[in-house]
Design brief:
This protein has 82 residues and is mainly alpha-helical. It has 4 helices and no strands.
Length: 82
């Protein structure tokens, strides 16, 4: 789980980095394509963490709750697996 959370953090940082570049140059089609790819990577990493939370709790935490936990209590979730 720790590795999945690290990958999610890295994907978020990369998506945010590209987003800032794209905001500064909104007509840049290459940056837009890079952002699209980074956003998809971030979404996939988020989904993997959600799935793992459901799996390790044997379904006691459902997908919706796991996603909400990551969005609102991320620090606490990360602390559990540090």
């Amino acid at each position: 789980m720790k590795e999945l959370l690290e990958k999610l953090n890295a994907a978020e940082l990369e998506a945010n980095r590209i987003d800032k570049l794209w905001e500064a140059d909104p007509d840049n089609a290459e940056l837009e394509a890079q952002w699209d790819a980074a956003y998809k990577t971030e979404g996939a990493a988020f989904a993997k963490v959600v799935s793992e939370l459901v799996k390790i709790t044997s379904g006691q935490i459902d997908r919706s709750t796991a996603a909400s936990m990551l969005r609102s209590k991320r620090a606490e979730v990360e602390k559990l697996f540090s």
